[in-house]
Each structure stands twice: as structure tokens, then as C-alpha cells.
Design brief:
It is built from 17 helices and no strands. With 284 residues, the chain is mostly helical.
Length: 284
């Protein structure tokens, strides 16, 4: 029975690799029942669960695979990714660290550990990890972008711009890099270039409400309130629950002697403390 299950599992894996996978979770469960010590079956079932956003259950499968095969790099990496999806960054870091010990040549593992360190505001170590990812893969576009984000957080604006420029050189169609570079320009009070980058991002992806919101804010900084209101209208159209857009539209209206209190009230009614503070200031 064990040899039969292994043959079935090999066929399933072959099909999966070549994009012809018809297997489902039950298929791997049956393989596990036939061979409870089959680490690959647990890992493969975990991958399918992860693809269905069943991250907690997927992690349990990866852990089972690792009990059987402690040096199973793919299972360590997958567990790290799923912990990251659950916003459990330290657990993700722990698994990526174990993966790096087994496969230190994996640029993706260094990259993902760096990203999760950055999310925990451990920017210096994040940059160190991203340095290593780039050393292993000099064309790792996302690593340049994320290293730029970490440098921006440390107020190394020149270093951040250099990384964003490199990312965009490698991948010109990269809205996230334009948005990240715009944030650095904003921190440098260079609102003209920030607006230009947000505009490039919007051209590539016009359906992101946050980008419209950020460009609207940048326009407010240079007192282009009409342009700001227009952008904030679009942000609200895309995401009617984006309260920051209502707040800033209300403030832009007030700055142009229009009634912005209805916008502030809508945000305040959602429990936003900033909106309530502005209402008390402008809408007495």
C-alpha cells in the first residue's frame, strides 16, 4: 500500500509542477492515510490549503512535514509566508531564519525575512537582509523597492531614492515603487515630484483608492485644493469607506470656503478621533 501511495503522490507532484494539477486536498489526505510519514504529502496539502487562504491549517501541515523531515526547506519557507499572511511577523522571521540556515543561497528567503523585519520596524536588520538578497540576485526588483522603504523610514532619503530609481529602471511598470518614491519625496517636502510619481502610479493602476488619496494630500500641501478635492472624490468613489479621504476632502472644502462639515461628520460618526477634533475646530 505504501509503494502505491508514493507512486500516486509522484504522479500528482509531476502534474502540479507542469500546471496540470487536478489534485485536491482530499487526494493528499488519502496519500497521508496510506503513508503517515510522507512529508511531501503534508507539504503539498499545505500548499493547497494556503492557496485557499486556509493559512492556520496549512501551517499545521507544514509543521507535520517538518516533524518528519526537519531540514525540509520548502516547508520552512511556506510556513514563513503563511505566518506573514497572518500578520505574525516574528513567527515568519523565525521560519525564514531556519530556512536561511539550510539554504543560505535563497535570495527570496533573505528578502522575506527583511520585509517582515521592516514591518516590525527593525529597519537596520531589514536592510541587511535585503542587501543579501540583492547580493544573491542583482536584478531583484522588489528587494530594491523594499530596501528603499526601509531607508526612507530611517530618513536616509538619498539612499531610498537611489533604490527606488533602480527598481524602476529594472521594472518601469511598477506602481508600488512610484508610490514609495512619492512618499520619500513627500518627506523631503518635494511635493511636485511626489505628485508626479503618484500620477505615474495612478496611470498604471487607476483603481487604488490610497494612491488617489495620497495625491490629493500632496495637492493640498501646495494649496491646489480644487485638484485635491477632485482626487479625493475619486478615492471615495473607489472606496466609500475610506474615512481619511472624507476628512481631507472636508478640510480642502473648508480651505476654499465651502461646507466641508458634512464630510468631517461622516468620518467622525465612524469613530475617527481626528475627524471629531476637526469638527470641534471648524464646525461649531
Amino acid at each position: 500500500m505504501k509503494s502505491v501511495s508514493l507512486i500516486i503522490l509522484c504522479l500528482i507532484q509531476f502534474a502540479y509542477i507542469y500546471g496540470q494539477n487536478k489534485a485536491d486536498i482530499d487526494t493528499y489526505t488519502k496519500a497521508i492515510e496510506s503513508d503517515p510519514e510522507n512529508a511531501v504529502a503534508y507539504y503539498s496539502r499545505g500548499v493547497l490549503k494556503s492557496n485557499k487562504a486556509q493559512y492556520k491549517s496549512a501551517i499545521e501541515d507544514y509543521k507535520k512535514a517538518l516533524q518528519i523531515k526537519p531540514d525540509y526547506f520548502e516547508a520552512l519557507f511556506a510556513a514563513g509566508l503563511d505566518y506573514a499572511d497572518l500578520r505574525k511577523e516574528q513567527e515568519a522571521i523565525n521560519y525564514f531564519t531556519k530556512g536561511i540556515k539550510i539554504n543560505p543561497a535563497s535570495a527570496n528567503t533573505w528578502y522575506n525575512r527583511g520585509v517582515n523585519r521592516s514591518l516590525l520596524k527593525d529597519y537596520k536588520n531589514a536592510i541587511s537582509d535585503l542587501d543579501k538578497a540583492i547580493e544573491l540576485n542583482s536584478k531583484f526588483t522588489e528587494a530594491y523597492e523594499q530596501r528603499g522603504v526601509a531607508k526612507n523610514s530611517l530618513k536616509d532619503f538619498a539612499g531610498a531614492l537611489k533604490d527606488f530609481n533602480k527598481a524602476l529602471l529594472l521594472k518601469p511598470v511598477y506602481p508600488d515603487a512610484y508610490v514609495a518614491r512619492a512618499a520619500t519625496y513627500t518627506n523631503m517636502l518635494d511635493h511636485k515630484n511626489a505628485i508626479a510619481d503618484y500620477s505615474s502610479a495612478i496611470k498604471l493602476n487607476p483603481h487604488n483608492a490610497q494612491t488617489w488619496l495620497k495625491r490629493g494630500l500632496s495637492k493640498s500641501y501646495i494649496k491646489d485644493y480644487t485638484g485635491s478635492i477632485s482626487d479625493l472624490n475619486e478615492a471615495i468613489k473607489i472606496n466609500p469607506a475610506l474615512m481619511d479621504a472624507y476628512i481631507n476632502r472636508g478640510l480642502a472644502k473648508i480651505a476654499t470656503n465651502q461646507n466641508g462639515c458634512a464630510d468631517l461628520k461622516k468620518a467622525a460618526d465612524s469613530g475617527n478621533p481626528d475627524a471629531l477634533r476637526f469638527m470641534n475646530q471648524y464646525c461649531k
